[in-house]
Amino acid sequence: MNKIVNSDLAPEPIGPYSQAVLSNNMLFVSGQIAIDRASGDMINENIEKETRQVMTNLGHILSEEDLSFKNVVKCSIFVKNMDDFAKINETYGEYFTENPPARETVEVSRLPKDVNVEISCIAVKQ
To answer: Which of 112, 111, 120 is nearest to 79 (CA)?
Structure first.
């Protein structure tokens, strides 16, 4: 049986989806964008701050199931401009200092709310 997982610290879904679903000890976290739940503001002064807010939102959702970035086995990164990749990659890397997960990065023409980066992940309860 699947369990819907939501964090009051991460942005509410902007469509018909859950922040995450726990199934067979695997947490599937929906793509997160750089909305600060407390203020409702989009954090997009620069790509590093935007990426950091995305990762913060992912972290809030992971923590709802007592997980951390150490439990993440796969990430998907969607970027609006591949020229931002190096800065996104550097900021993202701060959260995976050892044994980084599998990942793909894809440039797309547009993302929800016209953000520059969206990241989803899969984590495993061990």
So the answer is: 111
| Strand residue runs (E) in 1-126 | 3-5, 20-23, 26-32, 72-79, 102-107, 117-124
Mind listing the pLDDT tens digit for each residue in 15-56?
899 999 999 999 999 999 999 999 999 999 999 999 999 999
**β pairing state of 72-79 and 117-124:** antiparallel
- Of 2, 20, 124, the closest CA to residue 68 belongs to 124
Rounded Cα distance, 1 and 25, in Å: 11
pTM of the shown model: 0.96
